[in-house]
Write a structure and sequence with these properties.
Structural class: alpha/beta
Strand order of the largest sheet: 5-6-9-7-8
Enzyme class: hydrolase
Oligomer: single chain
Keywords: Hydrolase, Protein phosphatase
Domain Tyrosine specific protein phosphatases: 260-325
Protein name: protein-tyrosine-phosphatase
CATH architecture of the domain at 173-376: Alpha-Beta Complex
Largest sheet: 5 strands, mixed
CATH class of the domain at 173-376: Alpha Beta
CATH superfamily of the domain at 173-376: Protein tyrosine phosphatase superfamily
Shape: globular
Family: Belongs to the protein-tyrosine phosphatase family. Non-receptor class CDC14 subfamily.
Helix content: 40-55%
Length: 533
């Protein structure tokens, strides 16, 4: 590193991002220990390490990339240090040689440079590559299918997202993301602003949240369509009764959708007037596959870019062979997207840019303004209609209705007097017959053969008097089979890939210790929790 900025001798393996301002370094364990015990931050250098600050919750062998919440917090931290130094100090982001931490740290640095320093993906990748090689990102499956995501795929995906305003960190509610990403609050993530919300599959039993848990959040965020991709585990009428459309496009867990399912999904989502919530069992594999197909068609993203963007928003999206399937249908989706834009907008490159990004704070404020303004305009009309309804109701009350009311009142009065006159009679009826009739003792219960232990082979549910009538052992066995209890089908139900992923995600929160949050963040969380109450 440049000797003019008084860099310590330990930092040798580094690259320069901004001239005399920002550096990225990969250090060995001994070098990190020396930095920690020596004077880390002197008058010329500020050292930063996030290896123990951010973490990735893995399903199997997957380890990254970090989600968009970690990226947002990392960008805030880097901007704070760079702006505070004002060119007088250089900022060094260092990481260890551990392959997973090294890849995640380099990915965060590259994404930060694209987001705030106006780097092109290829340029920043050429700089970071000098400290390579970097470990490839795996999917959330037990066995690899040969498809691995690269850091440069994440860089290109963020550039596309910024181009079409998928995300805007100047207007990003990180508290809402952190809350909704938790399993106890629905595990749902926005993948496309005001268009796609991916969430875990609801259920009417106790294995997951019921559909009613999501209704308030859906209505507050203009979700008017739901697409279910897994076998039905809840009654869809819970959503349709509140005005939310519901569609079933079911195909097996862990598999790829057929062409018919893909075409139906694209047709439904293109015609939907508002946001769409999509789920399968875990809301990762099948959900990410179809939403990724939409991104490829309508935003000219590659399959790798679509997968990378979805994993930034919802880690674990698109699993196993579904990654290869997206690559296979990539060219067909590009052609379909060109035809769609020519038909709708009259131009091949007419891709609309979103007004708001995902988790936009401004969208909620503007929505409240529109609602209050609409209510103000409709208030006189509603008042007139209510007055007209009251007048019509008063006119409809006729003499016959009053006569009917008086007739029922007279009948009730007569009934009360009769009951009071015969109070003793009613009291005797209430007591009833107190004599106990003679009953024959039951011999069936005494004649059952009772053994200790239900699982013992000698236990039998057949009465002894019935056994005496058997002439052969085969007939006795056949008769005992009639009395055996029916096995519970739920115990023998096949465990799917989505069940395993949900179980792993549930274990994250059961093993995690409670984290301290400042008061201001708790206030924000309480406001967000009102969406689920």
């Amino acid at each position: 590193m440049d000797k003019q900025i008084n860099t310590p001798r330990e930092a040798d393996n580094y690259v320069e991002i901004l001239h005399k301002q920002l550096y990225f370094a990969v250090l060995t364990g001994k070098e990190i220990i020396k930095l920690k015990y020596n004077n880390i931050n002197n008058n010329k250098i500020v050292f930063i390490c996030i290896d123990d600050e951010f973490y990735y919750e893995n399903y199997y062998n997957d380890f990254g990339p970090f989600n968009i919440s970690c990226l947002y917090k990392y960008c805030l931290k880097m901007r704070k240090y760079i702006n505070s130094t004002k060119g007088e100090k250089c900022v060094v982001h260092y990481t260890c040689e551990y392959p997973e931490k090294k890849a995640n740290a380099a990915c965060l640095m590259g994404l930060f440079c694209i987001m705030y320093l106006n780097f092109q993906p290829k340029d920043i990748w050429n700089i970071l590559q000098k400290l390579g090689p970097y470990k490839l990102f795996w999917d959330a499956s037990i066995q690899s299918c040969g498809f691995h995501l690269r850091i440069i795929d994440c860089l290109y995906s963020l550039q596309r997202a910024i181009t079409f305003n998928f995300v805007n960190f100047e207007d990003f509610d990180v508290s809402e993301y952190d809350l909704c990403d938790k399993l106890q609050y629905g595990h749902m993530n926005w993948l496309l602003p005001r268009k796609f919300l991916a969430f875990i599959g609801p259920a009417d039993n106790r294995t997951a949240h019921s559909p009613h848990f999501y209704i308030k959040y859906f209505l507050n965020n203009d979700v008017k369509t739901i697409i279910r991709l897994n076998v039905a585990s809840y009654n869809a009428s819970a959503f349709t009764q509140v005005g939310i459309e519901h569609f079933d496009l079911i195909f097996p867990d862990g598999s790829t959708p057929s062409k018919e399912v893909l075409i139906k999904f694209l047709a439904i989502t293109e015609a939907a007037p508002s946001a769409i919530a999509v789920h399968c069992k875990a809301g990762l594999g099948r959900t990410g596959s179809l939403i990724g197909a939409y991104l490829i068609k309508h935003y000219q993203m590659t399959a790798r870019e679509a997968i990378a963007w979805m994993r930034l928003c919802r880690p674990g999206s698109v699993i196993g062979q579904q990654q290869l399937w997206l690559q296979k249908v990539e060219s067909w989706l590009w052609k379909a997207g060109i035809e769609y834009r020519l038909k709708q907008f009259g131009a091949v490159d007419a891709i609309p840019k979103h007004v708001y990004g995902i988790y936009s704070k401004q969208w909620l404020k503007d929505r409240e303004k529109v609602i209050t303004e609409t209510r103000r305009k409709l208030r006189p009309t509603l008042a007139r209609t209510q007055l007209s309804k009251v007048s019509e109701k008063n006119i409809s009350l006729s003499v016959d209705s009053f006569a009917k009311i008086s007739r029922t009142q007279k009948q009730n009065r007569r009934k009360m007097t009769e009951d009071n006159a015969h109070s003793l009679k009613n009291f005797t009826k209430l007591l009833g017959d107190v004599r106990v009739p003679n009953k024959r003792p039951s011999t069936l219960g005494n004649s059952l053969i009772r053994k200790t232990g239900y699982n013992s082979p000698s236990y039998s549910l057949v009465p002894s008097f019935a056994k005496s009538s058997f002439t052969s052992r085969n007939e006795r066995v056949r008769f005992e089979q009639l009395f055996t209890p029916v096995p519970d089908k739920r115990k023998t139900q096949k465990i799917t890939q989505g069940d395993r992923l949900n179980k792993i995600k549930a274990s994250w929160y059961s093993n995690r210790t409670s984290e301290y949050r400042p008061y201001s963040e708790n206030v924000t969380y309480r406001k967000l929790l009102s969406n689920f109450s």
